[in-house]
Amino acid sequence: MEMDRLNLGCGPNAPSSWLNLDGSWNAWLYNHGGIRWALATLGVINRDQGSQWSVRPIIHDLRRPLPFREDTLSAVYASHILEHLYLVDARRLLTECRRVLKPNGVIRIIVPDLRFMVTEYLAKKNDSGRALSEKIRAADYLNERLAFRKPAPPGGNLLLRFYETWKDLHSHYWMYDSDSLACYVEQAGFAEVAEKGFLQSAIQGIKEVEDPERILGGAGICIEAKKP
């Protein structure tokens, strides 16, 4: 199979049959083993930090244009990535995905399901305002699910605190329901925009990258579309 399927913001879930792109500190450390060893020896990072990959990822900041030529990829897969970008950057990324896809190429985007979170919150709020236990309020639970900010500032050594503040790859910047995500995908110039279920895809070999824990049980929504 031609290496023309892009696993965008892959994390350690990076099969060798895909192009795997990631902009995280851990991905960078994996590609720079000597620096990772030195930092671990000095106690700056844990020894297992940045060691989770089985293949060498492409290091790239998703706020910048994708490092691929126009009309070169057959598929772009992005799971729980878009919500970590400001909306303006997310929309720009969708346009970039359209640029690099071949005609009839498929984009598949998965994000946390805002509607599920709000519905769950309202149900828990109606139950005396509590969630999970007597000590966790419904509003606190919703805030944790939305993940706009952590409950406390970054900890650890100075280097890691600086990185967390500078990159802030773990916080969510914008959340979507199926209608809004489909709208932005369509506005980026895609056609045949539709919500899909787990492994329900036109992308060959989707099971190599798709994680059920990111879709099923209200964990996420999936929108798939094609480049005209």
Give the number of helices: 7
The CATH architecture name reads 3-Layer(aba) Sandwich
CATH topology-level name? Rossmann fold
Overall tally of domains: 1
Tell me what you see in this structure.
By secondary structure, the protein is α/β, with parallel strands linked by helices. It has a single domain (5-112, 173-226), classed as Vaccinia Virus protein VP39 (Rossmann fold, 3-Layer(aba) Sandwich), CATH 3.40.50.150. Helix content is 32%, strand content 21%. It is built from 7 helices and 9 strands. The strands form 2 sheets. A 7-stranded mixed β-sheet has the order 3-2-1-4-5-9-8, with helices on both faces. The two termini are 23 Å apart. The model has no long low-confidence stretch (mean pLDDT 85).
